[in-house]
Specification:
The protein has about 90 residues and is α/β, with parallel strands linked by helices. The chain is built from three helices and four strands; from the N terminus they run E-E-H-E-H-E-H. Helix 1 links the parallel strand 2 and strand 3.
Length: about 90
């Protein structure tokens, strides 16, 4: 079974970076939403490091787009992932 690992790879009082590894599929988007919402709720600037992401479902792309519209920065995505997330 494919999984998504989410780790805080950097954190300060005002910012955090979440390193994502694996697959952002419908099964795991709620976990990503919850962790992102928690950090945003603490007033932190948030960066999602997508360098370890191997797959994004349509639901995963929707959530990443929503987070991006809330000011979350998406970093280190492969060209394929960046193309999927482009408007």
């Amino acid at each position: 079974m494919a999984a998504l690992w989410i780790r805080i790879t950097a954190e300060t009082a005002s910012a955090a970076t979440l390193g994502l590894e694996g697959q952002i599929s419908a099964r795991w988007v709620s976990v990503l939403e919850e962790e992102s919402s928690r950090l945003l709720g603490e007033g932190k600037d948030l960066v999602l490091d997508l360098s370890g992401v191997t797959y994004i479902s349509l639901e995963g792309a929707r959530v990443l787009s929503e987070l991006s519209s809330k000011g979350v920065r998406l970093a280190n995505g492969s060209p394929l992932i960046e193309g999927l997330l482009s408007p």
